[in-house]
Amino acid sequence: MSIIVNHLTYRYNPGTAMESTALDDINLKIEDGEFIGLIGHTGSGKSTLVQQLNGILKPTSGGVYVDGADISDEGYNLKKLRGEVGLVFQYPEHQLFETDVFSDVCFGPKNLGLSKKETELRAYEALKQVGIEDDYFYQSPFDLSGGQKRRVAIAGVLAMKPKVLILDEPTAGLDPKGRDELLEKLTAIRKDTGCTIILVSHSMEDVARYADRIVVMHKGKIAFDDTPSEVFKHRDELKEMGLGVPNITETMYELKAAGFPVSTDIITVDTAVKEILRAMGK
Amino acid sequence: MLRDITLGQYYPSDSVIHRLDPRVKLMGTLIFLTSLFITKSFYGYIPAILFLFMVIKLSKVPFSFMVRGMKAIAFLLAFSVILNLFLTQGEVIFEFWKLKITKGGIYTAGFMAIRLSFLIIGSSIMTLTTTPNNLTDGLEKGLGFLKIIHVPVHEISMMMSIALRFIPILMEETDKIMKAQMARGADFESGNMFKRVKSLVPLLVPLFVSAFRRANDLAMAMEARCYRGGEGRTKMKPLKYKKRDAIGYLVLVLYLGIIIALRILLK
User: End-to-end alpha-carbon separation of chain A, Å?
Assistant: First the structure.
């Protein structure tokens, strides 16, 4: 499944005194199986962009083409699209509403018109994928802990078996252990299903570690679109945009500034360890 | 989409009307609306027109904002005018086909039109020149005498302020929830009446949960800052009458006097 964003511009409140350009001439191509990290300062347009990809928002000009078809066309099956391009919003636990966990996860596949058997099978699989135990299936979603609610909400989208999974800051508000667990689970899901993942994040470390491509947004435009190692070479520019580089990269810069001959093209702790040992002559 | 509704439609400006105590404005609106129903002849509406235009001029709010409220009742206005015009019995003045326009019809339709439009414009001036919180402060202070008969005036006014404060927040929340459910394939638009009502469940349940959660958090935050209700509570900006408020009351009394006088004289 290929998604092509072509000269997409989006304005809020067009033609009024409060008009603002959220997306300015965005061009992007998303291929099968990629893990894309989407980063940008608050207000840069990340959330607006991902909402264009499944038709929740319509472009002011330009278009989104999924497998060659313009999704803004009249008669385009947006419901089907949302089954294939799954979007998990920030704080997704706020969308839970059913009387029990299992029914809530069934909501998505049910809306796609699947048979009861298929719906329940998918709900079961999805809940297992996020690591929710059977005992919780028939409890009220409101009785679960914050982290569990989050996982149930994500399962609700996974149950639709999307080819492209977009997650808007899925680790917001989770403790470090919860964050790591969630990101590990996402990697496992990607390995199992081969789906494309787009991770909107504020954590440079997370995207450095998991993404094979990073798209940096700034004031509605794409500033950088490259591999993590390449993107994080632009340390100064990223800082000017209100972003940064991974902590470990920052550490390497400080070591270098203190006179230690290390390379600053480092974005993970493991490679940093190797580089420091190398520079120490070991 | 949902953000277009600006409740209260306060128009910020520095006019004498804006600076009036909200109690004067509340009383003024009440008196003005009452005067529209006391008047029984077209000539009686002349002071009303003059009063209205004077207030509009003093408020420094562009006239276009005043008539915005009219759009909402345009249909109702047209409907009642036409109804009254053609269905009132009496002395026939004009006739074509089967439709008769009577003298009584013209009078009733005319009165209806004036009353409705002045009603809307009159109340619009109130909301355009007074912030919602100013309004609730005015109600709280103005209706304070009801505390004697144990009406919880402060609590009601606090409830109103909080409700007004949360309207934009809850509208945003509704938007978010709607989008999240749409991303799961929810359909709020198609289907028959029954289906559409049913489709609101995934929207309303999370919204209510969110509202209750916020209410709980707000209550705790207020208590943590020593809120215990209205007893012994002082205000940062207490409402105090100024000279202009006395003048305002005087003008209102004069206006009402004129209206009543005209009503009696123009039998």
Answer: 47
